[in-house]
Sequence to fold (294 residues):
Amino acid sequence: MVIFMNKANVNANFKAIFSNKNHPVQIIGVSNALCALMAEKAGVKAIYLSGAGVANGCFGLPDLALTGLKDIVEEVNRITSVSQLPLLVDIDTGFGSMLTIKKAVKELMRAGAAGLQIEDQVFIKRCGHLEGKQLVSITEMVARIEAIREVSSKDKISIVARTDALGIESQERALERAFAYEAAGADMLFLEAASDLKTYRYFSEQLSIPVLANSTEFGKTPIFEYDELKQAGVGAILYPLSVFRVMNQAAFESYQEILKTGSQKNLVPKMQTRADLYEFIHYADFEKIKQEKT
Fold:
């Protein structure tokens, strides 16, 4: 009977699932614990918690450092309490300083995160697909990576180093950053805002660590097919907010429908049933425990 997860099991070696460049793993964003349960049942192998998703979905705020470590840790705890899928967690630029980075590593490892994604923008960062981004020096980003590695050995947490250098600096300068991040201990390069498959292929061939392709919508990167990115040699494909955006639009249209028609009748065929929800959340298991104790 599975009720709550053992977080020691959740905190598995994240690298194991993306080590084969010929079979890039699909990492799909979840916005809450229920979504993690549904992702697991759907066959997803790894999940992602977006900093923007927490700010937007949990607080109704833009992704401009208006939420903090405590907010991320709370969501991670909720997700890892019910799902054993490896969870990659977005920690933006590290919440302010090397001290906060180290604190974040300790708290997120305790919460069950399998990997941490940190980026080379300045604090306060911007969305990777907006103009006006600014980068820290290579030296400072290397220090961020080393701070994570200092707190955690390679078998405890994986580091995904994101660079926003494409479009700000030259491709060669972006590659220089990538080499430095790899040498500092990063396990994967998150290549933000790549505009073509040739760029992914170039970085994948140059680096010994896997490259992550961010397959987000409405940004600078076209939506490529899985096989296209596979041929480009990427090690992972991230869909950070895809399901979140579908859910949001469905919710908005549902509010409109109820107000327009005065009933939810037309929405019922689109709904998850009570029975399906209970199956995802193991309602019967909880009910059995309740009956055993009474």
